[in-house]
Every structure is written in structure tokens, then in C-alpha cells.
Amino acid sequence: MNVIYVVTIVLVGAGALAVVLVRDLVRLTMVASLYTLLLVVFFLLLHAPDVALSELVVGTIAYPVVLLAAILLGKAD
Amino acid sequence: MNVWFVGATALLVGLVPVAWVLIRGDILEALVALQLAGTVVAIVLLLIGEELRRRADLRPLHGQSRAVTTTLDYALYVLVGIGVTAELVACVGLLAMGRAIDRLHYASAATGIGPAFIAAAVCTREGVVSAQGLAAILIAVVLAVAGGTLGLAVARIVRLRTHGTLEPSAAERERGG
Q1: How far, in Å, CA of B40 to CA of B167, rounded?
Q2: What is the pLDDT of residue B61?
Q3: Minimal-distance CA residue of chain B relative to A37
Q4: CB of B31 less than 8 A from some CB of A
């Protein structure tokens, strides 16, 4: 297997662990964005550019926006 | 592995110190680290895309059993090497600096130097007037403009969070700031 696949899989695993372990919600949004970027690289390596594009839009735009809105609404309450 | 995948792998490893700052630094430093991570991943995608496209172009050679390294290949090695090294220096610099505003210098530098050399490498291989060459130039320009804009916005946020105002203090005016 190519080294880049191994490195990407390890980073995706570590990123998932980091998302679970981070306690601060705003920081969690940022770490989740980085995790999504790693997933995009992984999907592209797997020859799935359409999935990578979908993941990019959802994971780096839609998901952080919804998460930040939820955090702000929670603070307002 | 060839030069494109080697460069992409090196940049993925370079994301480790960036992720460390993202997780361990304060929230402003995390913001700067995320900006750099976005730039680095964009270049990784450019490198991987070029390699995957190159593989799609490969055809069996008749009467030629081994690949020949040409001057063009050496030029590619140099250009990709410089581009990747510039990004890696930015990643290590981000980790080495102590304050968010200092880290921001490295994050902003990464949006200009690295993408320019990687785009030059793509243009060297594909030609400037080609779909891939023009796309690489466009990506480098967008990264530079968007990176500069984003860097300015983040710098203002850092200034507001640390000083409470964008106006220079009396001491800064004295120093000519």
C-alpha cells in the first residue's frame, strides 16, 4: 500500500479521536473542520471526488455553521 | 511513490504540528492554525489531483522497459520541493511561535510562496496554456488573495481580543506603529 494512504488513515483516526476528546465546543467546531478536510483528502485518494466535494461542503461549511448557531443559541438561553 | 505523492505525504505529516496548535493553543491560535490547515490541505488536494490525473494518462510503453528521468522531471522535483518546504516551514513556524499574531505571519506566508511554486510545477509539466496549468494558476491566485484577506480579518480579531481596539496605543505611535 502506498505510504500516503497509511499516513492519511492514521491522521483520520487521530482526528476522529481528537474530535471526541475535545471538550470546548467552539474548539470542537474547528477540530471537526480539520477532521473533515482530512476526510476529503482520504476520499480523493479513494478515487471518489464526488464524495469528497459533498463532504467538503457539508463538513467545512454547513456543519460548523449549524454547530456555531446551536452554541450561540444555547448561550442565549 | 513519485514527487506529487511524496510532497502530499510530507504536507499531511506537516499538519501534525498545526493540529497540535489547534487543539492545545488558545482560541485565537486555534483560528490561525485552522487557516493554515485549510491552505495546506488545498495544496495537498492539488498535488493528489495532479498525480491521479497523471496516472490516468499512463499508457504501456513498447520497447522501453524502464522510466527515464528527464530534465523536466528534475525541474519538477525542485519546484515541488521548494513549494512543499515553504509550507512545512510555515507549519513548524506556527508551532514555534508563542503568540497568535506571530503565528499568523507563518499562516499568511503559506498562502503565497508554496502555492506559487506548486502551480509553477504543474505548469512546467502540463504547459501554462492548458486546463490544468490555468487551473493551478487560478488556485494559487485565489489562495493568495483569500489568504491575505483572511489573514487581515484574523489579525483584526486578534488585535480586538488582545487590545480591545484597532487604534494604536501611545507607545506604538511613538515607535511609529
Answers
A1: 32
A2: 63
A3: B41
A4: yes
User: Cβ contact (<8 Å) for B12 and A11?
Assistant: yes
This complex has an ipTM of: 0.90
Question: First vs last Cα of chain B: how many Å apart?
Answer: 49
Give the angle A24-A25-A30 at the CA atoms, nearest 5°.
100
For residues B177 and B168, is the Cβ–Cβ distance under 8 A?
A: yes
How much is the pLDDT for B52? 87
pLDDT at B64 over 70: no
Q: Which residues of B touch A14 (CB under 8 A)?
A: 19
What are the cell numbers at B54?
Answer: 497523471
Residue of chain A minimizing CA distance to B9: A4
Contacts A30 to B, Cβ<8 Å: 22, 30-31, 33-34
All three cell numbers of B63, joined, read 520497447
Name the pTM for this structure. 0.89
Domain ranges of chain A: 3-76
